[in-house]
Design a protein that fits this description.
39% of the residues are buried. The chain has two domains: 117 residues, Aminotransferase class 4, branched-chain amino acid transferase, N-terminal domain (D-amino Acid Aminotransferase, Chain A, domain 1, 2-Layer Sandwich), CATH 3.30.470; 157 residues, D-amino Acid Aminotransferase, Chain A, domain 2, CATH 3.20.10.10. Helix 6 packs across helix 8. 31% of the residues lie in helices and 28% in strands. The chain is globular. With 285 residues, the chain is α+β, with helices and mostly antiparallel strands. The longest helix has 15 residues. The protein contains eight helices and 16 strands. Bound molecules: 4'-deoxy-4'-aminopyridoxal-5'-phosphate (PMP). The site of 4'-deoxy-4'-aminopyridoxal-5'-phosphate has 14 residues, from helix 6 and strand 14.
Length: 285
């Protein structure tokens, strides 16, 4: 079955789906994106993802290319046409096509929109969660507005590649004060020896993950102790548990940081329980 992409109003086979070479996403990474988990063919937390999309667009002064209702139809239709049961739907909106010039294009230039979807390997993901993953640390070298979900991801690409080359799943950015900000494509968490769950406060220095927001709801509902603050790499090394969250990975236990085992070196109880219960707190549409 050939995969189908939605590109500026048309559903096309992936091989025929393309954007203009003067698209500002291609030229300047002048655009934003969202990734939603798809579960049983339905979108997870669409409402929250669309709210964050609106925020990212408005921070960059890019117009929303269609009504939220139409966009929802397109997202579901791309999932349906690709027969995604468990996987992701990807949405990208850029400032559109215009002769290359750094400043904004003429008013009225239509934003470009692309939607794709694909299945993920559910069994593989569950195995990975059961084993836990390794992370490495890398210096934070991104701009100061990573709360905007921009497609400008070069530092994230390099960090992820460094992780891969060291046999790790993720790279954690560490700021100049030695504090972890977040992963290259996930939010970072630890559980301290005395059972407090810690994740960085959602300021401009991290992406306010939708999975993070839902996990905060789950923690509150379960009466677990939470501290929304930055934690250092030293604290992470001394932690009882660590984990990462993102829409495509849900909650993934971290068992090694920079080659050193976390806790007893096995996935933690809190992380594993959060992964198991996550969809109880998420919305399906
Ligand atoms: N931080 C970064 C840098 C990310 O790329 C992602 C994944 N998009 C996240 C955090 C997690 O966000 P979410 O839970 O919304 O997928």
């Amino acid at each position: 079955m050939s995969r189908i992409a939605y590109v500026n109003g048309r559903y096309l086979p992936l091989a025929a789906a393309s954007v203009n070479v003067e698209d500002r996403g291609y030229q300047f990474s002048d655009g934003v994106y969202e990734v939603c988990e798809v579960r049983d063919g339905r979108l997870v937390d669409e409402r929250r993802h669309m709210a964050r999309l609106k925020f990212s667009l408005s921070e960059l002064r890019i117009a929303m290319p269609m009504s939220p209702a139409s966009l929802s139809v397109v997202l579901h239709e791309v999932v349906r046409r690709n027969r995604v049961r468990w996987g992701i739907v990807y949405l990208q909106i850029t400032r559109g096509v215009s002769r290359r010039d750094h400043a904004f294009p003429p008013a009225g230039t239509a934003p470009s929109i692309v939607v794709t979807a694909r299945n993920l390997d559910l069994a593989g993901a569950e195995k990975m969660a059961g084993d836990g993953v390794a992370v490495i640390s890398v210096p934070e070298n991104r701009w100061e507005r990573v709360d905007i979900k921009s497609v400008s991801l070069l530092p994230n690409v390099l960090a992820k590649q460094a992780a891969r080359e060291q046999g790790a799943r993720e790279a954690w950015f560490v700021d100049r004060d030695g504090r972890v900000t977040e992963g290259s494509s996930s939010n970072a968490w630890i559980v301290t020896r005395d059972g407090k769950v810690v994740t960085r406060q959602a300021d401009h220095g991290i992406l306010k993950g939708i999975t993070r927001t839902v996990v905060l709801d789950a923690l509150a509902a379960q009466g677990l102790k939470l501290e929304e603050r930055a934690f250092t790499l030293e604290e992470a090394h001394a932690a009882r548990e660590a984990f990462i969250t993102s829409a495509s990975q849900i909650v993934l236990p971290v068992v090694k940081i920079d080659g050193r085992p976390v806790g007893n070196g096995a996935p933690g109880l809190i992380a594993s329980a959060l992964r198991r219960d996550f969809h109880h707190y998420a919305e399906l549409s």
